[in-house]
Protein: Glycine receptor subunit alpha-2
Amino acid sequence: MPLLIACLSVSLSVILFTRPTECRSNIMKTDFIQAMFEEYDSSLSPNFESNESTKVNMSLYVNSIDSISEQSMDFTINAFIEQEWCDPRLIFYGMIMDEYFELDSKFMVRVWVPDLYFTNEKRANFHVVTVPNKMLHLYNNGCIKYRLRVSLTASCPMNLQKYPMDSQRCSLYLQSFAYTRKTIDFVWKSIKPVVASKTMELPQFTLVNVNTRNSCDENIGGPDFTCIQVDFNLKRNTGFYMIQIYIPTIMIVLLSWVSFWLSIDAVPARISLGILTVLTMTTQKGAAISSLPRVSYVKAIDVWMAVCLAFVFAALLEFAIVNVMQRRQQKFADPSSFVNSSNKNEEEKQNSNNRRLSSGKRDAQRVDNVSRVRRTLGTVDHLIPSFEQALGRVAYIKDVRNPAMVQIPPYLQAYKYKLANTDHTFL
Structure:
């Protein structure tokens, strides 16, 4: 009996310690993979029988952030997504010497993979040039590393109250579509879960930092579904806006102030300058906000443009006020009666001439007002005398009616001969 027990022990030792070596030397990799997946069901989760949750370690390599749109409030990202989990049904059990297998993308359909999707995704696509950009490594302990390349456009709600001096946070939400935490659990890797390319450069923003969380601000499926989040904190670059918006608007405002140094009598120049700067500022404002959504709140760029437009309009309004004030001073000149020039000295004669000219200007203003009314009524084709000619005619007629009262000034002598041969009965 003891001999039988000893023989059985030796036989068992030979089977346990020598048989696996012979198997490792004789089994082919192809036969092993075919045999391993013969009874494998890719429609069932790894721990389906044990009712344990499968932990999936996630990592993200950001290749590029292509665009960030304020109009549609979204951003486009190109990234490599890597998932790692363990499936006890795929353990080698020491039958193959290789540490891991590199499986082709056509073979991946036979392996169970997590049902990952992006909650805030608008559009997405896989890269298939020249072959599908997917990778699957199967390790001897049953763990799987699955990597794929994807380009997607995700929503990014923005607050533009400080635009263009604002900072934005664009997030990606990664969640399981069908499995609850009882079956699958997503977590970020403990070391470098998100890595951005060193050559990545954004035209309008600077990537300040990246934060990861194992929970989401908004979990669509509720707390029973696993969800993780990555936040991209972005700060807007102001160089473009300084060159295209701020410096030009400052120069337009300074240009509108040039009218303060022009003579008050240069009416066409000041009016043209004021209107030109107002229209230019209006056009500049429209171009600045054309790429922004029609939000109901006030933005920083709106305040800047409104202040610049107010300065430009105030410069135009200032000329109108000054011009009216000058006209009012001329209108309310001293209208005292004239004095007989034969009984007055030379100073009194000059004062009399000045008063007569003020009265003449008022009469000329009446002619100018009548001319405006006539032009408004459409009678612009009639011949209307100029301001100076009307002034001279009125002054001369007064002198003709009462030659003893006043004396015609020297600069009106040119009209005397011309008007002497003209019939004045129509006056």
